[in-house]
Amino acid sequence: MKILADENMPYVQQLFGDLGTIETVNGRELTPEQAQDADVLLVRSVTQVNASLLSLNKKIKFVGSATIGTDHIDTDYLASRDIPFSNAPGCNATAVGEFVFIAMLELANRFDDSLKSKTVGIVGAGNTGSAVAKCLAAYGVNVLLHDPVIADSDPRDFVSLDELIHRCDVISLHVPITKTGEHKTWYLFDEARLNSLKPDTWLLNCCRGEVIDNRALIKVKQQRSDIKVVLDVWEGEPNPMLELVPYVELATPHIAGYSLEGKARGTYMLYMKLMQVLGQEADKSMTSLLPSLWSEQLSIESVPSEKSLLQLSRFIYDLRDDDEQFRAMILINSSKNKRVNCANNNGFDLMRKNHKHRREFSALRVVSTGQSDVNWLSNLGFSGIGQ
Fold first, then answer.
1. Which of 22, 68, 199, 373 registers the highest number of CB atoms within 10 A of its CB?
2. Half-sphere exposure in the Cβ direction for 18 (13 Å, CA)
3. How many CA atoms lie within 13 A of 156 on its CB side?
4. Of 232, 206, 231, 200, which is closest to residue 113 (Cα–Cα)?
5. What family name appears in the similarity comment (predicted)?
């Protein structure tokens, strides 16, 4: 059995190696000729899986995408050919939730503000949006949710998008990309909606770049420096609008979900599904893939201040490093107001490919040596809470 896998997908050899021959490919540049003799295709969001890609393949048994979203997959086409498909919903939700939480702490620190005093609006209350809400709730931040797709079947309280914008100091976007229909998200934040943001709003996008009209965002930011923006996703990836980057407080190349745990979880979910399709019993565990918890252990005496909580978070993941590297890679040798071909200069995709260092909060043990209640840190995800 031939297994064709994106070269950026981790742990493929460990999980799928005894099932057949593995060939890794550049997922963004995958061709029908490369895919024609694959029995199993494992992709990420950069690969469009459709009739064109599989036009030469008559034997494929399974397609898996180690992603939450499926907008890059023609699921109707796969169903028409009875090709089993699975994605990995929720695989990187914790990673995205922690990324967004850390980004908010960074903004609060940069502008001498307090995250805890903010009201945060989450647009899209699925797996990743809920993970953000979980971190914020653990820290005691007031949260409002907007998600018309699930509002009728979800017991949580929801507000309209207009109300959320009116009431919230911080807005974080976590919706799939949909181009048509009642709940279209393509350019959900267009020029008019961007201009309707409250003064000093923080706007974070870690879902899909086209949820914000990037050209309109440039125009609005030129007129409103009070709005602070964090972008992990960009319209036109892997070629973001170069002129937008200077207007963004924290800029990264679609790596919010790129923790070791999130990557392992995504690949492992596809392994479990393939074993089910093949009618075989899974004999591997996800825990065997990851390094053990860090041997380092932090002891704290009291409930950390917001600045010390940021320092604790930076011990796990310092977002500033990725922001600095992104700007250096994207802007190097590029003139102002020129759209960069990042695929050719390897900036955007190379940084994603090499992003293998990040862990989640759960990798760090935190032990209280004082009398203060720090159990809420366990709700953030830290391990070893207690005395």
1. 68
2. 7
3. 19
4. 200
5. Belongs to the D-isomer specific 2-hydroxyacid dehydrogenase family. PdxB subfamily.
- Residue 364 backbone class (left: φ over 0; alpha: ψ -120 to 50; beta: rest): beta
Contact 48, 63 (CB under 8 A): no
Separation between Cα atoms, residue 355 and residue 154, nearest integer Å: 35
Token couple for 317? 């993941």
Paired strand residues for 205: 173, 231
Mean per-residue pLDDT for 80-90? 96
Average pLDDT, the chain: 91
pLDDT digits (tens, 9 = 90+) for 217-240: 999 999 999 999 999 999 999 999
- Two structure tokens written together for 362: 């759960």
DSSP 183-227: T--TTSB-HHHHHTSPTT-EEEE-S-GGGB-HHHHHHHHHH-TT-
CATH for the stretch 2-87+259-288: 3.40.50.720
Confirm or deny that 232 is annotated as ligand binding. yes
What span, in angstroms and rounded, lies between the C-alpha atoms of 106 and 2?
45
Q: Was 152 annotated as part of a binding site? A: no
**Is position 209 annotated in a ligand binding site?**
no
Known binder of ligand: residue 302? no
Share of the chain above pLDDT 70, in %: 90
**Nearest partner of 352 among 386, 378, 329, judged by Cα:** 329
Residue 238's alpha-carbon distances to 234, 315, 351, in angstroms, are: 8, 29, 11
334: tokens are: 């590029």
Active centre residues (catalytic): 208, 237, 254
The DSSP annotation for 23-46 comes to EEE-GGG--HHHHTT-SEEEE-TT
pLDDT at 263 over 80: yes
Strand order in the sheet with 85-86: 21-25, 2-6, 40-43, 62-65, 85-86
Write down the residue that tokens 């009642």 correspond to: 182
Residue 147 labelled as part of a binding site:
yes
Per CATH, domain 93-251 is 3.40.50.720 = yes
- The radius of gyration computed from the CA coordinates of the chain, to the nearest angstrom, equals 21
Residue 353: per-residue pLDDT: 83
- Coil, helix or strand at residue 305: coil
Which contiguous run of DSSP H or E holds residue 123? strand 119-123
Tokens for 188, please give them: 């959900």
Backbone phi, psi, residue 120, to 5°: -105, 130
